[in-house]
C-alpha cells in the first residue's frame, strides 16, 4: 500500500511575523528620522535666537558713509516712542562724527499725511542737524523694502557703507538684509524705548526676530506682518 506523505499546514503565525517585523522596523526608523528632524530644528531655532541676542549687544561706532535709521510708526509727523528712540540714537551718532549724513527711511500708511522718513527728518532737523545732512527715502512699508530702497539711494550717490540704527533685536535681520543688498553694513542700535523697557518686551523681541530672520533666510521675503508688542 502506498502512503501519501502527510501534508503540513502552514503556520499562519510564522508567516505573519515577517510583515509585522518589517513594519515595526519602518516605524522605528521613521520615529528616529522625525526625532532627528525635531532636534535639528530646535538647534537651528536656539542657535538663531542666540545670534539675535549676540548681535543686539553690538554697538559699532566705526565711521560710515551714512547713518541709516529704520522707520517706525509716526502720528501726523510726530514719531512714535519706538521711532523717537531710534532717531535719538542717530542724532547721537551724528554728533559723535560717525557720519555727516543721516538717512531716514519709510513710507506711509493709508490716510497718513507724512511718511516715516519725512517725520524722521523733521525730528532730526528740529534737533539741530542741518537739513542738507538728512536724506529722507520716503518708500518702504517693511524692513526689506526699506533696506532695498536705502541701498538703491546710496548706490546712486556712490555711497557704500552704513551704520544701521533700529531696536537691538532688529539688528541682525537688518544687517543681513543690508549686506544682501550690497551694502557694507554694521549696527549701533538704540538702548532706549519700548523695545528694551522690560524683560517681557526683550524676550518677545528676540522671539519675533528669530522667527522673522529664519523666514527671510528661507524665503528672502520680509516677515514684518508678525506682531510686535513694541510697535513699528
Automatic annotation (TrEMBL):
- Where does the record place the DUF218 domain? 65-209
Q: Where are the transmembrane segments?
A: 33-53
Q: Looking at the Swiss-Prot or TrEMBL record, what is one Pfam family this protein matches?
A: DUF218
- Keyword set includes Amino-acid biosynthesis: no
* GO (cellular component) term, any one: plasma membrane
CDD domains attached to this UniProt entry? YdcF-like (cd06259)
Q: Which UniProt keywords apply?
A: Membrane, Transmembrane, Transmembrane helix
Q: Which domain of life is it from?
A: Bacteria
Q: What is this protein called?
A: YdcF family protein
Organism of origin is: Nocardia flavorosea
Q: Organism classification, top ranks?
A: Bacteria, Bacillati, Actinomycetota, Actinomycetes, Mycobacteriales
Amino acid at each position: 500500500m502506498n502512503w501519501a506523505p502527510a501534508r503540513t499546514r502552514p503556520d499562519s503565525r510564522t508567516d505573519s511575523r515577517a510583515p509585522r517585523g518589517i513594519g515595526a522596523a519602518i516605524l522605528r526608523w521613521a520615529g528616529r528620522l522625525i526625532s532627528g528632524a525635531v532636534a535639528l530644528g530646535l538647534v537651528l531655532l536656539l542657535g538663531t535666537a542666540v545670534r539675535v541676542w549676540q548681535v543686539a549687544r553690538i554697538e559699532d561706532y566705526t565711521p560710515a558713509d551714512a547713518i541709516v535709521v529704520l522707520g517706525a510708526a509716526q502720528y501726523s509727523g510726530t514719531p512714535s516712542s519706538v521711532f523717537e528712540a531710534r532717531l535719538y540714537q542717530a542724532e547721537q551718532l551724528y554728533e559723535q562724527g560717525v557720519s555727516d549724513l543721516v538717512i531716514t527711511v519709510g513710507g506711509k500708511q493709508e490716510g497718513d499725511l507724512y511718511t516715516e522718513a519725512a517725520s524722521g527728518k523733521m525730528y532730526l532737523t528740529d534737533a539741530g542737524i542741518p537739513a542738507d545732512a538728512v536724506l529722507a527715502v520716503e518708500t518702504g512699508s517693511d524692513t526689506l523694502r526699506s533696506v532695498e530702497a536705502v541701498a538703491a539711494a546710496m548706490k546712486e550717490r556712490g555711497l557704500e557703507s552704513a551704520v544701521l540704527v533700529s531696536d537691538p533685536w532688529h539688528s541682525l535681520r537688518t544687517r543681513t538684509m543690508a549686506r544682501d543688498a550690497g551694502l557694507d553694513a554694521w549696527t549701533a542700535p538704540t538702548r532706549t524705548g519700548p523695545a528694551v523697557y522690560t524683560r517681557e518686551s526683550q524676550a518677545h523681541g528676540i522671539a519675533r526676530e528669530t522667527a522673522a530672520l529664519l523666514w527671510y533666510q528661507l524665503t528672502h521675503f520680509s516677515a514684518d506682518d508678525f506682531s510686535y508688542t513694541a510697535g513699528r
